[in-house]
Amino acid sequence: MKLPGRRRLGLGGWSEDPLWATVYPWLVSHPTVGRVAWAVGLQSDLDRLYAATDELGALPAGTTVLDVPCGGGVALRGLRPGQGLRYVAADISRTMLDRTADAAYALGVEEQVETRLADVEDLPFEDGAFDVVVSFTGLHCFPDPARAVVEMMRVLRPGGTITGSTMLNDSGLRHAPLRTTGRLAGVLGPGCTSEDVHLWLTAQGGRDVTLEPSGGMSYFRAVKR
Q1: In 3D, which of 151, 153, 146, 148 has the Cα closest to residue 193?
Q2: Do 122 and 39 contact (CB within 8 A), yes or no?
Q3: In 3-state terms, what secondary structure has residue 129?
Q4: Residue 84 resides in a domain
Q5: Mutual orientation of helices 94-107 and 20-29 as an angle, nearest 10°?
Q6: Whole-angstrom Cα distance, residue 188 to residue 159?
Q7: For residue 15, what pLDDT is reported?
Q8: What's the number of domains the chain is made of?
């Protein structure tokens, strides 16, 4: 899932562990600074991300969850020790998976979390393998976000929920410089619009599709028929 031809700023793609891969989870873990960074950079409310990850803590024992891309394990903050989930954290970067494993240990949820090296465009899981698929700040990073949605919906069982967040190309002109810089740095892909996300999810059997904007970030959800 490396982004070809996008290394002009010398920061590398996600499989090469760019600087943002460290900065992003650090900001999420330090809300005093993180809230300011989100408000200034994205005009977004970081508490909305916290609320989305906290939803994972309400899942019943036995729920199977796929987190892709797991990055540094940001979504793990929502899990509870002893919750009894099967939580598969997938990413194309081994470094990201190592950070996720460290985060799981620090949060006391390591017995629920397994890491898996995987490309979101060709997930190594059976159809309908998961009850929940989460993808926080992922779609805008993928070289082919439409294909990623196809794969994430494929491995979601009927009746299961997909949820996540993404920067959208139609979020406004004030966010255009951030998108452009991210693409030059090799950490952002072509992105998508709100209409794209709705159409892709619906085409793959999604119903009750919602997109909730928060500045430059939007939070999406759908249930698979």
Answers
A1: 146
A2: no
A3: coil
A4: yes
A5: 20
A6: 31
A7: 59
A8: 1
Q: What is the pLDDT of residue 17?
A: 67
Q: Per the structure block, which two tokens stand in for 225?
A: 């028929």
Please indicate, yes or no, if residue 73 is contained in any of the structural domains.
yes
Which strands, in side-by-side order, build the sheet including 217-224? 113-117, 86-91, 64-67, 130-135, 156-167, 217-224, 206-214
Which residue type occupies 8? Answer: R
**How far is residue 149's CA from residue 174's CA, in Å, rounded to a whole number?**
27
Asked if residues 138 and 68 have their Cβ atoms less than 8 Å apart, the reply is: yes
Location of structure tokens 């452009």: 180
> How much is the pLDDT for 66?
98
> Looking at the domain assignment, is residue 6 inside a domain?
no
Say if residue 124 is preceded by a cis peptide, omega within 30 of 0: no
| 140 domain-assigned | yes
List of the chain residues with pLDDT < 50:
1-12
What is the 3 state secondary structure string of 191-202?
CCCHHHHHHHHH
Q: Which domain holds residue 114?
A: 14-224
CATH number at residue 78: 3.40.50.150
Structure tokens belonging to residue 67: 């987190």
